[in-house]
What we know:
It is an enzyme of class 6 (ligase). It contains 15 helices and 17 strands. It is an alpha/beta fold and 424 residues long. The strands form 3 sheets. The protein has an 8-stranded mixed β-sheet with strand order 4-3-2-5-1-6-7-8, with helices on both faces. It has a 6-stranded mixed β-sheet with strand order 12-13-17-14-15-16, sandwiched between helices. Helix 12 (339-346) links the parallel strand 14 and strand 15 (352-356). Helix 3 packs across helix 9, helix 3 (54-67) crosses helix 10 and helix 7 runs parallel beside helix 8 (204-212). The N and C termini lie far apart (50 Å).
Amino acid sequence: MPKTLAQWLDHLETLHPVGIELGLDRVSRVADRMGLLQRPIAKRVISVAGTNGKGSTLAIIDSVARAQGLRVGTYTSPHLLRYNERVQLDGSMASDEQLVAGFEAVEQARLAAPAVSLTYFEAGTLCALWCLCQQPLDLAVLEVGLGGRLDAVNIVDADVAIVTTIAQDHAGFLGTDIAQIGREKAGIFRSQRPAVLGSRDLPESVADIADALSAPVYQLGRHFEHTADPASACWRWQGHTAAGDALTLDALPDPGLPMDNAATALQALVLAGVVPEAYPTQTALTNLVVPGRMQWHGQWCLDVGHNPHAAAYLARHLPPVAAGATQWGLIGMLSDKDADGVIAALSSRIGDWVCVSLDGERGREATELAERIAALGGRVHHCAASPMAGVEWLATRLGPEDRVLATGSFFTVAALSAQPLPQA
Length: 424
């Protein structure tokens, strides 16, 4: 009897002795058996790597490209509520049936002699690429996982490669040397194909890799830019085509996401041969919603930020609360994340906290977070056994002008996204 999607996902957990193993040899062999390396997965491909900002950059590329009439497929990870979120085909999640067919194709190729062991992420990446290949796509946009050079997504040669930001995260796999992290992320660049740098202060190692490959570099602040128009609450994008021609888009609405990422997305699209027209781009940015990224549900702001760099952005962009109201922080984090750095970055905006425990092998207890917050001068009002238990405690204490930032992990935000949140 054929496996259901849930059964396939359970099966993937058993395929490899460790959850994460960077490297391209095993996944490339299976991809070759599946025929994924013999032809492009779409007419044009954009890959997006970086420490933060990958998901929002990809979402903007997807939304703007579809607004221009292109057929777009995307691959992202992780998901919030359903695995199907990882593969989007022309704006809709892949169906269970499509993913099951993809996993069946992966398994058949994996077991062909000699059999190959794959991690959960590697099998999922191959399934996603197979699903994208089944569609007549104008553009595929691929989010690179925690690495770059050795990440499974990097078996695909992208027409345009993006590095958004570089900061410390996943230190157990990528280390703490920022220059080396930059080199790993820049491993998605390809010879003589455009490299888009989505930050003004990336380590020099990123541009060095591009130069070594003779990859044309387009960096925020040098080759493309965004400027605000305070009078209209809109912004202007200025960039360049691959031929060096200047382009400008005016009167763009605030997408509610980092402007650096929005400007980077537009530059990458242009280099992929898509020249965005003004009105469709304005419409796409106006209607854009990225789950778990500064996503508001009444008094609650949900954000999956889980490292100091992301937390610092949140601290700068949280709107102020009314006089006399409280800005709460509900936080749950995994044990391998820099909790002290995240708490310190948020402490300028949040002094009142609810800590929640996360289950699993990498879970962290709420009491440990509480100790760290107290050591940094914050006030912990409650420790809860789960994210929803923290919500239930806050539900009886929220004032009508209070606000809550729920953050620290995809797992924290996923739990709160699963049902309506209480409002005072």
